[in-house]
């Protein structure tokens, strides 16, 4: 009896071991559906069909534009899920800080909402050695004008009125200029609190380009990354400006649509002089960005945006975030990872993520050039 009982216990243990082993094998098989796998050719790919890890390895440091932070968070998460053992560390600071870091050689690429200036290209040659820094347009989107005004859910403004608000010339929400654009809306006699970026910002520069192009009589400042107008209140990063607008009644500020969407902040409709005011949306921003022309030369793909468009449904306050890389002379230890990651962000699936996140994909014709340039990086 004791022998039979011992045999039964042994059989039970072996059966449990077999089930446990089967579960482990099943789990390993499941990992291949969501993580890295090796195709028949030996090339490492991920669950997302256009993520190719290739020779990517180790840690890649990058920094810059906070405008693209929400998009970058999605990209990094998906890419790292597909390319096990590779770490992409993107620090969302500002366009200015990103370019400084790139030209100091401390990052593999930088994000900037404005194309490199000639002097920045010159500085980049010290790091790129055999080449220079170039601009690769990767993320498009509207710069939303967010506002917080108790009792007012919908607001329309035009360029001259926006210029006067951000220049401190219009100080009350019930100002005649605002009232004329918002017939039937009960505007309170409340002080306007305008928020702007505290650090050098490509988002600031793009807003400045819009105001300078569309309201030259009311916005006399050169479009620069540093906020030019007196007064107002400063906050750090797009996230900081959005947080202030969210909290402060009577406030207005500017930031990427993704920040407004994620925090349920109301946004201004823009009167462009077209048939109807235009809402800030990915689709409407895409209509404006689609008209952009490549202004860069060689492998540089800097774009010329039309901020004065009156095309139906085109939202004019837009920006394009560039990933700044060396055309040649990239560091050998980071080049494979830079190319692999940017190939994903510029790929079909990487670009598809943008719309749902409040951004706008780069127009197809321009994006094709971006992919060709990434493939040629050395």
TrEMBL record:
Domain of life (superkingdom): Bacteria
InterPro entries from the UniProt entry: ABC_phos-bd_PstS (IPR005673), PBP_domain (IPR024370), Phosphate-bind_PstS (IPR050962)
Signal sequence bounds: 1-26
SUPFAM superfamilies, per database record: Periplasmic binding protein-like II
Domain PBP per the UniProt entry, residue ranges: 56-349
Family matches, as PANTHER family: PHOSPHATE-BINDING PROTEIN PSTS
Stated name of the protein: Phosphate-binding protein
Upper classification of the organism: Bacteria, Bacillati, Actinomycetota, Actinomycetes, Kitasatosporales
Protein's gene: pstS
């Amino acid at each position: 009896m004791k022998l039979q009982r011992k045999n039964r216990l042994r059989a039970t243990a072996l059966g449990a071991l077999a089930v446990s082993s089967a579960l482990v094998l099943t789990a390993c098989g499941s990992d291949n559906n969501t993580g890295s796998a090796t195709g028949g050719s030996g090339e490492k790919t991920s669950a997302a069909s256009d993520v190719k890890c290739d020779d990517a390895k180790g840690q890649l440091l990058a920094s810059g534009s906070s405008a693209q932070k929400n998009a970058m968070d999605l990209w990094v998460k998906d890419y790292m899920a597909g390319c096990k053992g590779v770490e992409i560390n993107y620090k969302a600071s500002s366009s200015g800080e990103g370019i400084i870091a790139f030209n100091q050689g401390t990052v593999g690429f930088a994000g900037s909402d404005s194309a490199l200036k000639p002097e920045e290209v010159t500085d980049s040659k010290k790091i790129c050695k055999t080449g220079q820094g170039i601009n690769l347009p990767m993320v498009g989107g509207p710069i939303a004008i967010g506002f917080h005004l108790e009792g007012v859910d919908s607001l329309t403004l035009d360029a001259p009125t926006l210029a006067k608000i951000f220049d401190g010339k219009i100080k009350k929400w019930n100002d005649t200029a605002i009232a004329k654009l918002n017939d039937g809306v009960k505007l309170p006699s409340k002080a306007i609190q305008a928020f702007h970026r505290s650090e050098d910002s490509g988002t600031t520069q793009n807003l400045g380009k819009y105001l300078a192009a569309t309201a030259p009589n009311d916005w006399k400042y050169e479009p620069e990354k540093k906020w030019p107008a007196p007064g107002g209140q400063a906050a750090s990063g797009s996230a900081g400006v959005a947080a202030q607008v969210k909290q402060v009644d009577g406030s207005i500020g500017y930031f990427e649509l993704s920040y407004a969407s994620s925090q349920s902040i109301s946004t201004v409709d823009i009167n462009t002089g077209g048939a109807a005011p235009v809402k800030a949306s990915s689709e409407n921003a895409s209509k404006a960005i689609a008209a952009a022309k490549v202004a860069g030369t060689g492998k540089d793909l800097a774009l010329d945006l039309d901020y004065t468009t009156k095309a139906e449904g085109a939202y004019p306050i837009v920006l394009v975030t560039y990933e700044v890389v060396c055309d040649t002379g990239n560091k050998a230890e980071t080049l494979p990872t830079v190319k692999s990651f940017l190939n994903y962000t510029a790929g079909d699936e990487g670009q598809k993520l943008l719309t749902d996140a409040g951004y706008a994909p780069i127009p197809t014709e321009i994006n094709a050039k971006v992919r060709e340039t990434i493939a040629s990086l050395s």
